[in-house]
C-alpha cells in the first residue's frame, strides 16, 4: 500500500481542481484566481472531491459532503499563500 506524502496529496487535489474548473494547467488556474476575491477550494479528505468557492486564504472551509472543516483554497494548496 502506497502512502501519499503531503506534497503528493496536494498535487492530486490541485489536479482535480484544475480539471473541475476547466483549466488546462495549474498555472492557468492560479493566474486566473490570484487577484480574485474568491478561489476554488477542495476537500482534503481522502476519497472526497467536493469543490466550492472559498476565500483565497481558506485552510478549514466547510465540506458539505463530509460535514467537516476540510476544504482548502487552491492558493493555499499551491503554497502561494
Summarize the structure.
By secondary structure, the chain is an alpha+beta fold. 35% of the residues lie in helices and 15% in strands. The protein has one domain (6-77).
Task: Explain the overall architecture.
The chain is of the alpha+beta class and 81 residues long. The chain has one domain (6-77). It has three helices and three strands; from the N terminus they run H-H-E-E-E-H. The chain has helices at 6-21, 26-33, 74-77; strands at residues 39-43, 51-54, 71-73. Strands 2-1-3 form a three-stranded antiparallel β-sheet. The chain is globular, with a radius of gyration of 12 Å. The termini are far apart.
Topology:
Layout lengths: L5 H16 L4 H8 L5 E5 L7 E4 L16 E3 H4 L4
Antiparallel strand pairs: 1-2, 1-3
Search tags:
81 residues; 3-stranded antiparallel beta sheet; globular; alpha+beta
State the strand order across the main sheet: 2-1-3
Q: Work out the helicity level.
A: 25-40%
**Amount of beta strand:** 5-15%
Number of domains: 1
Identify low-pLDDT runs.
none
Overall mean confidence score, pLDDT: 94
What profile does the largest beta sheet have? 3 strands, antiparallel
Query: Strand-and-helix sequence, N→C?
Result: HHEEEH
Please identify the structural class as seen in this structure. Answer: alpha+beta
Would you report the number of β strands?
3
CA radius of gyration is 12 Å
Shape: globular
Distance between the termini: 32 Å
The total of helices stands at 3
Amino acid at each position: 500500500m502506497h502512502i501519499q506524502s503531503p506534497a503528493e496529496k496536494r498535487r492530486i487535489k490541485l489536479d482535480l481542481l484544475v480539471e473541475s474548473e476547466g483549466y488546462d494547467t495549474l498555472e492557468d488556474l492560479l493566474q486566473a484566481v490570484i487577484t480574485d476575491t474568491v478561489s476554488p477550494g477542495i476537500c482534503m479528505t481522502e476519497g472526497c472531491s467536493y469543490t466550492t468557492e472559498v476565500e483565497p486564504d481558506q485552510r478549514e472551509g466547510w465540506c458539505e459532503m463530509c460535514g467537516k472543516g476540510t476544504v482548502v483554497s487552491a492558493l493555499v494548496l499551491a503554497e502561494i499563500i
